[in-house]
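User: Need the bound-state model for calcium ion:
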Amino acid sequence: MSEAAIILAAGAGTRMKSKNSKVVHEILGKKLIDWVVDAARSAGIEDLVTVVGHRSDQVIEAVSDRSAIAHQKEMLGTADAVSCAMEAPQLADLHGSVVVLYGDTPLISPDTIRKLLDIRNEKNASCVVLTMRLDDPFGYGRIIREDTFETETATGEVLRIVEQKDASEAEARVCECNSGIYCFDADDLRSALAKIEPNNAQGELYVTDALEIMKSEGKICVAYEAEDPTECLGINSRYQLAEATSVMQTRINRRFMGEGVTMMAPELVWIGPDVKIDRDVVLMPNVWLFGNTSIGEDSIVGPNTRLTDTFIGCGCTIDETVAIEARVDDGASTGPRAYLRPEAHLCEGAKAGTHVEIKKSTIGKGSKVPHLSYIGDTTMGQGVNIGAGSITCNYDGHNKHKTVIGDDTFIGSDTMMVAPVNIGDNVVVGAGSVITKDVPDGALAVARSREKLYDGWVDKHKS
Ligand code: UD1
Ligand code: CA
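Assistant: Bound-state model below.
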């Protein structure tokens, strides 16, 4: 093992004003800490140790399948947090690179992490620190290089990092900031951590002091300025969470537009990181695509649509639809105002129209449920037409029951199908029927009271 990463996630995140851990807040349907874990893994790092403290239950639940856990008992500072991780059994034998990441800095890209690892190897450095130049550097640690006070764009070796609260007036004017993300040589880090003391304005153990210690021992410390400073955006408040969401939204939408997806108003389209979209798909305004959703070529999605873990085939029209764990095959259409719940499956060319809700049901090839219907726990054949306002009564107050409808059957409007019930192939059901008994193939079923007529009734009752 020669590469590992530490993710610091013990902080309380007070400014979020939340009962939850800061790092389980979400960007585009994915937890902050998951973004960081995935970035490290995409950069090729398999061994991860996450440092937990505040609301450790939530952080452990989020990452323990992909990361080892180290508990930080007291928040003594970033150096103490890093020490906790380095003492974890997973890192005890590490000789090589260890990257330090923050659970609340989710926009970091795998490329940048890889770059830090490569620079460390190339320069044989004890530390590579990721930096950013900010117009308003207030609050951040400042990067002091050999030539910082000689030029605006210093590029020399790093001497040390000074925290805001410890900075002199001149140091506070420096605009190059510490992102808090580093790549260390594991052995040099261990030896530096042992020497760090809390002699600073906050009485904390600063991991940033490791650089000065390394320098004093003649080791090499390199600063690498991020090409895209938004990668270093840390999230301390709900406002910054919104800002980071917007940065990520732009990144993802640009990528899809580059791959041939049309967006009428990209600022009104939110796409999660695991979504797949083919070319020539059109996304209208107010579209949310989350989880493992995928959309096939030539489909039109939106406006006002939210799809979670849903498969959409090619050439579909998905208008004002909410779908969760649903499947819509090629050429099918939904909405406006359709609700597809888990295990709803529209086969090729099928339709779930206006104000239609479908749950755990298969709507066969070319079958149509055009208006105002609820279909649940149903298997429907091909070429079926369900009249407006028809409902499968699948729940008796205790249990759910199945409805089966054969091929080419016509269900009249406002039919109640009281499950369990089997309706055969080529059946016609009269409008307004309440079907409680099975209907054999080819039959007409009518289950409603007959109409009575009273001639001249209106005239007789005129006052
Ligand atoms: C830190 C850096 C600063 C840098 C900034 C970037 C130090 C001393 N300073 O400052 O140079 O510009 O990040 O955002 O490192 N954490 C723990 N345990 C602790 C302390 C912190 O897990 O005992 C975690 C926090 O949850 C947080 C991260 O480490 O995610 C940073 O800690 P914080 O105290 O916010 O450091 P900053 O003051 O922001
Ligand atoms: Ca911070």
